[in-house]
Amino acid sequence: MRIIINKEINIPKNNLKKYIIDKTLIIHKVLFKIIYTLNLRC
Fold first, then answer.
1. Contact yes or no for 11/19 (Cβ under 8 A)
2. For residues 37, 38, 40 and 42, what is the CA-based torsion angle, rounded to 10 degrees?
3. What is the distance between the alpha carbons of residues 17 and 21, in angstroms, rounded to a whole number?
4. pTM of this prediction?
């Protein structure tokens, strides 16, 4: 478990931008799904 966490934290500087973009894309996809399902229910 610790190894996985350390890999997540220890991101190389050149991959930092890509890492942040990937994380924000995942968050946006999740938010979109939540909003979409809420709209279907109403």
1. yes
2. 170
3. 6
4. 0.49
Domain ranges of the chain: 2-41
Any idea what DSSP says for residue 15?
G
Q: How far is CA 9 from the centre of its chain?
A: 14
Provide the sign of the torsion angle of the four alpha carbons 24, 27, 29, 34, taken in this order: negative
What token pair was written down for 29?
A: 């996809």
**At 24, which amino acid appears?**
T
Which tens digits make up the pLDDT trace of 5-33?
566 566 666 678 888 888 999 999 999 99
